[in-house]
Design goal:
single chain; 352 residues; elongated
Length: 352
């Protein structure tokens, strides 16, 4: 149960601790594996791992423990070498082997682990626009939480996979200001400067205040332009200046002035500017809230962030919701003793 104190902390974290952000690192700008939970394995031997996986898959009954131990304790780069060694030895891709010998969400997470990060994001994008309806929440998560480099890599992977430009196909799935916002983010051209222009931050804060709270009607384009183009350090300063000018946080103003998918994506951008790990911790919590668990969201976030900032996501989850992420997965999703539960436990390592 989420107590009043936790709700208060949750509101405080996302809305009022602005000054603390100015010097803190951001997952959108720091290209490091230091905050991931999966590291490169010392003494790694791709051939030995491939042989062990082959034995686990081709024996009488698949040995899940071997699959979990190897694939959750190697970096993605090392897994790619294992995939090559496996195919060289067997003439069959490791992906095909896993899909033939495992099933359900366990299969999904194993296949995700052996997929290169950009290709994995690309496949999540394809899944989001597949079929009769578009899953906008996944599009919002992908484009709000990824860095320029990650977005460009996803676009390259999409072109290689489909022969089409990602932006071209995105245009056919969304519309209006939501489309405009996504297309700007999909270009992967957010300013990456680390310099902060306080005067510019004050000006941008004033522009958004006058386009929203101070205006009869909202000029959404002003918010979109600033939030999609300015650098993360610059936007953090702008959040501070906006609160000083208006007496409200920018998130509060967006929620008051806008609605629908545009509101959702602009709020997501603001949250990610402040803390991608906290935003993704919230996404994980919501995926387990209610009668059913969205395993695809668990897999996407835990696998994609396992070498980026999963340590920070775990810490933010504990702060926001008063329990460890793994314990909540175990309790809410009913995963104890299951292959998927053990897989997630290994990826998150010490989170018990």
């Amino acid at each position: 149960m989420i107590t009043f104190q936790k709700i208060y902390y949750f509101s405080f974290y996302f809305q009022d601790d602005l000054d603390l952000l100015l010097e803190s690192p951001s997952s959108l700008t720091v290209n490091s594996t230091a905050r991931g939970t999966i590291k490169e394995k010392p003494g790694f031997n791709a051939g030995e791992d491939a042989a062990a996986l082959r034995k686990a898959i081709e024996g009488i009954g698949t040995t899940e423990k071997t699959l979990i131990d190897i694939l959750t304790q190697r970096s993605n780069a090392q897994r790619q070498l294992i995939c090559k060694a496996y195919q060289d030895a067997t003439g069959r891709t490791l992906c095909d082997a896993l899909e033939g010998d495992t099933h359900g969400h366990f299969e999904d997470i194993l296949v995700a682990l052996i997929t290169p990060p950009a290709k994995f994001d690309c496949q999540e994008f394809i899944q989001a626009i597949k079929g009769a309806g578009t899953t906008e929440s996944i599009l919002i998560e992908l484009f709000a939480s990824r860095s320029n480099h990650q977005i460009k890599a996803m676009c390259d992977a999409y072109l290689a996979e489909t022969g089409r430009a990602l932006i071209h196909d995105l245009k056919s799935e969304v519309s209006g200001d939501f489309e405009k916002t996504l297309l700007i983010l999909a270009e992967g051209k957010r300013d990456e400067s680390t310099n902060v222009d306080v005067a510019k931050a004050k000006e941008d804060a004033k522009i958004m205040y006058e386009a929203g709270e101070k205006n009869w009607g909202t000029e959404e384009s002003k918010f979109i332009d600033i939030l999609c183009h300015r650098s993360v350090p610059q936007l953090r300063q702008t959040l501070v200046e906006y609160k000083s000018l208006s007496g409200k946080t920018l998130q509060e103003s967006i929620e008051r002035e806008m609605s629908g998918r545009l509101e959702e994506i602009l709020v997501a951008i603001v949250k990610c500017v402040k803390s991608v790990p906290a935003y993704l911790a919230e996404r994980l919590y919501k995926s387990m809230k209610g009668a059913s668990t969205t395993e695809s969201t668990l897999t996407r976030i835990i696998v994609s962030r396992s070498e980026v900032d999963l340590q920070d996501i775990k810490a933010e989850y504990k702060k926001l919701f008063g329990t460890s992420l793994y314990s909540n997965i175990e309790m809410q999703a009913g995963f104890p003793l299951s292959e998927l539960g053990r897989d997630i436990e290994k990826i998150m390592r010490d989170d018990k």
